[in-house]
Amino acid sequence: MTSYVSRFRDGDKDQKDLLGGKGANLAEMTNLDLPVPPGFTITTAACRAYMRDGHVPPELRVEVTLAIREIEDTIGRRLGDFHEPLLVSVRSGAKFSMPGMMETVLNIGLNDASVKGLTEFSGDERFAWDSYRRLIQMFGKTVLGIDSDLFAAALDARKTAVGAATDVDLSASDLRVLVQTFKEIVVERTGREFPQHPREQLDMAIEAVLDSWNTDRARLYRRRERIPHDLGTAVNVVSMVFGNLGETSGTGVCFTRDPSTGETGVYGDYLPNAQGEDVVAGIRNTLPLSELELLDPVSYDALRHAMRRLETHYRDLCDIEFTIERGKLWLLQTRVGKRTAAAAFRIATELVDESLITMDEAITRCTGDKLSQLLFPQFDSGAARQLLTRAMPASPGAAVGEIVLDNAQALERTAAGAHVILVRRETNPDDLQGMIVADGVLTARGGKTSHAAVVARGMGTCAVVGAEELDVDPARGEVRVRGEVLHAGDTIAIDGSTGEVFRGEVPVVDSPVMVYVSDGLDAGLAAAADPEARALVTAVDRVLRHADHVRRMHVRTNADSAEDARRARARGAEGVGLCRTEHQFLGDRRQYIERLVLADTDDARREALEALLPLQREDFVGLLEAMDGLPTTIRLIDPPLHEFLPDLTELAVKVAVAAVPDPKDVALLAAVERMHEQNPMLGLRGVRLGLTLPGLFALQVRAIAEATVQLSQAGLDPRPEIMVPLVGSVRELQLVREEAERVLAEVSASSGVPLDVPIGCMIELPRAALTAHRIAEEADFFSFGTNDLTQTTWGFSRDDVERAFFADYLQNGVLTISPFETLDADGVGALVRAGAEGGRSTKPGLHLGVCGEHGGDPESIHFFHDVGLDYVSCSPFRVPIARLEAGRAAVSRRSSAA
């Protein structure tokens, strides 16, 4: 028989699949004898059964009763008791953190009778009625589906009526009136009274939390974060402790290190006389955690002790929610905390220095995605700027864009190609769509642990929060600050590292980390403006050096010019994995290929080839010189024929409208019509073009050979590799290889320079992958072209489908991410694996690489490591990211093998 309830004492932190992250960590803290209120977890198995059957498992009600009675016996109070009532919270808790996406209900167990008992028990009438109004407000929104704005408007109206500045200023009698108003809203909106039976409240709240797993916003968040939809959420039922019992009580969130910078110290937010939702909702601006030491030094010391113990136990930054009830500290939640990219690198290396983790563990905590965030530009410190206000930096970066005040504006303007900054009083989970598309987020309220801060940090989006001087008025489309009025559509700039907000555009410059990866450690340190930035550059350097030390795969770059090659080499590239020679024929050179394609005599073809040879040779001289001593894979010309011909429609119109058509245009039109293809991406391109146009591949091979000779005679060490594109048959490669070897032999003989140039091919067609054992007979190496392999496996035309239906496919769960962004491991990956195994079954030492855009994608790099590829090749910008991920892949594989 399946058990759906687990007491905190029976679980541990390694049971996140069953207990969710929150439940597993509550269990862990309980077993560490830390002050956790008694409670239990309804497991994810119950949620999955609920999703499957459409109703709560019948056994769950019985198990909840037994667990509730155990809490009652432990605490000595009963749920719904008229004199000393037990109140509980019901909180979601999935395996993976989904901040603000699912539901929480506090103060369950209060009704018209027990609110009086709570008054007697606490000795605080105001507290009791405040707790009751919170229950109705939260229950009404979460469980009954009532628009939260109705409750917020009633609350604001009451404060206005009595002249109260904040919620705390409302008296007990004010709150009694407000409770009655809230109950009337419930009746008006649902047609039923607010439920008075505590067990009915509990059962309804549990079901509402289970339902929240599949809300639109939760599904959107999971799609963005690629969290599976079938995991389900756990539900945590915890006895209430109260932070709103006067000035000796309060609630807060703290971090064992600064989640923005990684610095050690005291970081967090505290609100006296408040409940936890007040902090994360951002509806009241918080005090820094250091203020708690002055207000309640005993609780502060207890909290600091718990923080140190948890960080030591988890060996990582911990995010802790706590409540102080009349001087008694309670821990409500802990988890390994979300952090910015900068904090990730600093924390990892500092934990190494403190001997809490190893360098292997450190690189597993510093992802390529986080490194990429550190490579983005930042504001130019020397540029003129107009400061509007300064607030709390919540997620670093520099963002410039138009003001938008809601989701609709954000989506509309970004769809039009604009960059936007989402400006809100405070964000809530309903703002997720706008936050996803925005370049930055700015709020008037909230702290570093508010919804805006946590979600923005998780997404790597620049954010500034708690800008108290902002008066955000969505109804009028205005933002007022210090007497200035800004409107939706006006441009602002926000600095998530300093909290500064500027009017108008501010120019950006390379970050110190970008300077470091481009120009070296000394240059990066010199570009750092302060000790924090220098510490970050040093941390990134240590992590990358260790990744280079442990990784098995090499990292090459995709480079079509000497400039690209030099840039990539400076960033750590160990060769060129793909030079796309067709890019060298764009612009003014296109006419030479056009003449070659349209040549109708041997003399005309020879003239076209002779004109191209010196141009190609100089291209390769520059590229091979930039990569001196490193392998340089040069792909022979690949693109479809139509890219080098005049547009058929334009040419036909030109001939048709001319009074007397030019004979050259008429002849050209006839040639273009003869060569026109309905589907050029699957037509005359790659190896097919080389075999169809005599001399084209031979020209390129000769240019490579002559460039190699020229550099060798100059004392350099050029190492070209010739790659044949779009091979589907071993005979195709055999024919090209024979021609290439003939040309190489001729150049070697005439120059006296030995030429040992590897000749390989791309594996970018399913047939090539499935017949790799035969193709390997003629290949010195394989390079998987995963862009075309994805297109030909899925039957997708990348240029068309991404705008045509990918959005619908992602929305409906057909895809969780574009297969052109991250490799489709099940389909395309199976062909890569088959190609690798097939090739090496013929040639055990066959060199294998990948040169599609997946070569710079972190998740794909781990797959390529597992398949056994020797290198990945990516854009120059992503070389440092690939170096890091190749190291992480090696460590992960070693750890799993152990």
TrEMBL record:
Ranges for domain Pyruvate phosphate dikinase AMP/ATP-binding: 53-285, 301-348
Keyword Magnesium: yes
Every PEP-utilising enzyme mobile domain range: 419-499
Protein's UniProt keywords contain Transit peptide: no
Superkingdom, taxonomy of origin: Bacteria
Record-linked PROSITE patterns: PEP_ENZYMES_PHOS_SITE
Alphabetic keyword roster: ATP-binding, Kinase, Magnesium, Metal-binding, Nucleotide-binding, Pyruvate, Transferase
Organism: Cellulomonas humilata
Gene Ontology terms for molecular function: pyruvate, phosphate dikinase activity
Designated name of the protein: Pyruvate, phosphate dikinase
UniProt family annotation: Belongs to the PEP-utilizing enzyme family.
Residue ranges occupied by any PEP-utilising enzyme C-terminal domain in the UniProt entry: 543-887
PANTHER family in UniProt: PHOSPHOENOLPYRUVATE DIKINASE-RELATED (PTHR22931), PYRUVATE, PHOSPHATE DIKINASE 1, CHLOROPLASTIC (PTHR22931:SF9)
Reaction(s) the record says it catalyses: pyruvate + phosphate + ATP = phosphoenolpyruvate + AMP + diphosphate + H(+)
EC annotation from Swiss-Prot or TrEMBL: 2.7.9.1
Needed cofactors: Mg(2+)
